[in-house]
Specification:
The protein has 305 residues and is mainly α. 60% of the residues lie in helices and 1% in strands.
Length: 305
């Protein structure tokens, strides 16, 4: 080991109040890292616990587990933008394109489910999943919170009547995905939505308190004017918005339609949601960065797919 490296190590451990010699001695007894230990392969491969004996249920489980890993990667990229004080157009664009590539992967991967599971098997094992629902993905909800202002996630029916300075509690009660498990006429919530809120509502509200001023849209609007006019950044913003809120959503919708619309008869989702109007972008018109689209594009959102 060279003198320069030794000095750098000494400086590093001195800052930590640690003795370098003790750490070096520890290397004498530590075993070399292996791929399977680093990736925790055995742990990963033992996380699939099907509820039936139907083999295609394993495809369904692993597919969704992969999704959650990608969601975690996406949140990590967004966090870097959110916590960088003086983010510039170059970094912003780079991170957005990374995130879009993750969503491109998510979008194309729906063929694994659409063409990779037997319809009869799916419609048998799905009954054992009731009342679980895909809208219970907490990480995906966080991606939405971290991407845009809460007003853009409000159910379209109430968006014009919600005060932008409304409490987090009130805004939360009118988020678009509440419609997947709430009767707005009676206020009654499904079991699926109730248990989801019991587990995550407080965490979501804490999360949105930070991202209220650090979400991607707010960070973009706070950039100097010359940065906001950067064509590469604008294209990256639009690409991300379209990829998440139209391409990925429609891939999900088409997969659900493949399995839940049999012979022209629409089957209820496992969580009991009216999944057609909940999922299709033309109904909820979820748009992260509305000012970056023309009026015509906004009016036709999700209709030309």
């Amino acid at each position: 080991m060279g003198t320069e490296t030794t000095n750098q190590l000494k400086e590093k451990y001195q800052k930590l109040g640690q003795d370098l010699d003790v750490h070096l001695e520890g290397l004498l007894y530590s075993k070399p890292i292996t791929y399977w230990d680093y990736i925790h392969t055995d742990s990963l491969l033992n996380l699939q616990i099907p509820r039936t004996n139907l083999p295609d249920e394993m495809v369904f489980i692993m597919y969704h587990q992969i999704n959650e890993l990608l969601f975690k990667m996406i949140l990590g990229e967004i966090e870097q933008v959110a916590t960088t004080e003086n983010v510039d157009a170059a970094m912003f664009s780079s991170k957005l394109m990374r995130i879009s590539r993750y969503f491109d992967m998510l979008t194309s991967s729906f063929s694994i489910m659409k063409d990779g599971m037997d319809v009869d098997q799916y419609n048998k094992f799905r009954t054992s999943l009731t009342p679980a629902s895909g809208f219970q993905s907490a990480q995906y909800r966080k991606i939405e919170f971290a991407s845009t202002e809460l007003i853009n996630l409000i159910d379209k029916r109430f968006r014009e009547t919600i005060d932008r300075n409304s409490s987090y509690e009130n805004a939360f009660e009118h988020l678009y995905w509440q419609a997947a498990g709430k009767d707005y006429k009676t206020g009654k919530k499904s079991y699926t939505l109730t248990v989801f809120e019991e587990k995550y509502k407080d965490e979501f509200i804490r999360f949105t308190q930070f991202y209220n001023t650090h979400n991607l849209w707010t960070k973009f609007k706070a950039l100097p004017q010359v940065e906001k006019e950067n064509k590469e950044l604008i294209n990256a913003m639009r690409h991300y918005d379209y990829t998440v809120n139209i391409k990925w959503v429609m891939a999900h919708y088409n997969t659900a339609n493949h399995y839940l619309n049999i012979g022209g008869k629409t089957t209820e989702a496992t969580g009991g949601s009216e999944w057609v109007k909940y999922m299709h972008p033309k109904y909820q018109r979820r748009i992260f960065f509305p000012d970056l689209w023309t009026e015509e594009e906004l009016q036709n959102w999700g209709t030309e797919v």
